[in-house]
Structure prediction request, 252 residues.
Amino acid sequence: MKKVFGLVGHSLSHSFSKQYFTNKFNTLQLSDYVYELWELKDLKNIREFIHSQGNVVGFNVTIPYKTEIINYLDIITEEVKNINACNCVFVKDNQWIGYNTDWWGFLKMIENKLDKHYTSAMILGTGGASKAVAYALEKLGIQYIFVSRNEHPTSSNVLSYNELVPEIFDQFTLIINTTPVGMYPDVEDIPPIPINFINEKHFVIDLIYNPEETKLLHEAKQRGSKILNGFEMLYLQAEKSWYIWQELNENE
Prediction:
């Protein structure tokens, strides 16, 4: 019987996942495996929709549904509970089990690239991706603060962009952009940080992978910073999804 996988989200025309998994199925000669793109306006009938697609073994979830999908899951992992976002679902006996592989992808991407002085991180953004990054940093023993466009007077670890002074950059030498600012087609955009405070002590990571080098990464590199985009994280989170689906299938 054909095994169906897919991606649930909105505006999926430039999806990495379909190409990635289709290539994987071809390489592994899994002719009865298919990966589909499911663009949905909302999740109201998501259970019925997935059921109607045939023998769905698992699916990924992307923007803007990573948090909302939790309402439709039967079982969630500790990571999903902590991050409040799910990007990978395994379907077994009509039960949906939710996982988060984004945090794992980020952790594996950076764990062997960190010099000893990268002990504190500044996370740009407070959305779902920022929570996955924070969860990974906790696993690595790295303290962090969030930077937001909005004021958060009740939170001690959230600063607004206009509070970023040189002392903050001296302390938080790992800078991670989790916002979509600078993503194609708006490639000239850059998060509103004081870019001149970045120097050779910093490591700037942008989760965006299109363009390969965002304006933020370009400006950081010009100032001597180490830089990295998010493509490897994307690849690794997909690999982890495949591992989950395969492991669970083998245990049937």
Remarks:
- The chain has two domains: 3-100, 104-232.
- The domain at 104-232 is CATH 3.40.50.720 (Rossmann fold).
